[in-house]
Specification:
Blueprint: H1 3-8, E1 14-19, H2 23-33, E2 39-45, H3 48-58, E3 62-65, H4 76-87, E4 92-97, H5 102-110, E5 115-118, H6 123-134, E6 139-140, H7 142-151, H8 163-173, H9 178-185, H10 189-203, H11 208-218
Parallel strand pairs: 1-2, 1-3, 3-4, 4-5, 5-6
Helix pairs in contact: 3-4, 5-7, 8-10, 9-10, 10-11
Length: 221
C-alpha cells in the first residue's frame, strides 16, 4: 500500500463515476483507480444524459468529468456539472479534460466543480486531487492553478464581511465541514450554515469551492 493510501484510506471506498466520451480513456482511468484500495469505480458514461442516469442510479461521491462530451460542443460538460451539483449537492465533481483555458477553469468552479486537472497530469497528482475533492477541498494541477492566478489580475470590488464571516471563510479555505467550523467557533451547525449562506450571497458564489477561489482572488484569505 502506498503512503498516499495509508494516509487517506476511509472507512468506505470512495465511489467514482467516469464521464468521458472516449471508451479508451475511461478504461485507462478505471485500471488506474481500481489499483487503489480506497477507490471504487461504480459507473461510466459517455454522454450527458448517460451521466445523469448513472449518477442517479449509483449515487457516487465523486464524478471525474471531461468537458467535451460530443462533437457538437466543446464545453457540454460545464452544463452537466451544474445540473449534477445542483441535483446532488454533496457530489464532488473533478474536471479532467484536455482543455486548458483561463476562463474555462473559472467557469468550471462557477458551475460547481471542486477541482480542475488536465489529462497529462501524473497518476500521483490525479489521485491526490480525487481525495482532496472528496474531503470537500479544492484541487488544481499546476496548469489549472496558473490559469486561476492569471484570472485574478482583474480585481472585483471586495464585499464587506463581519468578523465572524471572516473566521468562517478562513475555515472554509482549510476544508472544514459546517460541523467542524461550529466546533471551532463554539456555535451551532445551523448558525454556521447561516454564515456560509451569507458569504455565498455576498460573493455571488454557488459552491464552497467558488467561495474559496473568490475570497483568495480578493485577498480576503
Amino acid at each position: 500500500m502506498t503512503t498516499e493510501q495509508q494516509t487517506h484510506v476511509p472507512t468506505q471506498a470512495l465511489r467514482i463515476v467516469l464521464v468521458d466520451d472516449h471508451a479508451i480513456v475511461r478504461h485507462g482511468l478505471r485500471s488506474i483507480l481500481e489499483r487503489e484500495s480506497d477507490l471504487e469505480v461504480v459507473g461510466e458514461a459517455s454522454t450527458a444524459a448517460e451521466a445523469a442516469a448513472v449518477v442517479e442510479r449509483t449515487r457516487p461521491s465523486i464524478v471525474l468529468l471531461d468537458l467535451k462530451l460530443s462533437t457538437a460542443a466543446d464545453t457540454e460538460g460545464l452544463d452537466l456539472c451544474a445540473r449534477l451539483t445542483q441535483r446532488h449537492p454533496d457530489l464532488a465533481v473533478l474536471v479532467l479534460t484536455t482543455f486548458l483555458d483561463d476562463s474555462l477553469v473559472v467557469e468550471a468552479i462557477q458551475h460547481g466543480a471542486r477541482g480542475y486537472v488536465v489529462k497529462d497530469v501524473d497518476t500521483t497528482e490525479l489521485l491526490r486531487s480525487i481525495r482532496a475533492v472528496a474531503r470537500n477541498e479544492s484541487a488544481f494541477d499546476s496548469h489549472a492553478a496558473a490559469a486561476m492566478v492569471r484570472s485574478m489580475r482583474v480585481q472585483p470590488q471586495r464585499p464587506k464581511f463581519t468578523e465572524r464571516e471572516l473566521n468562517v471563510l478562513q475555515m472554509l479555505a482549510h476544508g472544514l465541514s459546517n460541523r467542524e467550523i461550529g466546533g471551532e467557533l463554539y456555535i451551532s451547525e445551523t448558525t454556521v450554515k447561516f454564515h456560509v449562506r451569507n458569504i455565498m450571497r455576498k460573493m455571488d458564489a454557488s459552491s464552497r469551492a467558488e467561495v474559496v477561489y473568490e475570497a483568495s482572488k480578493l485577498g480576503v484569505i
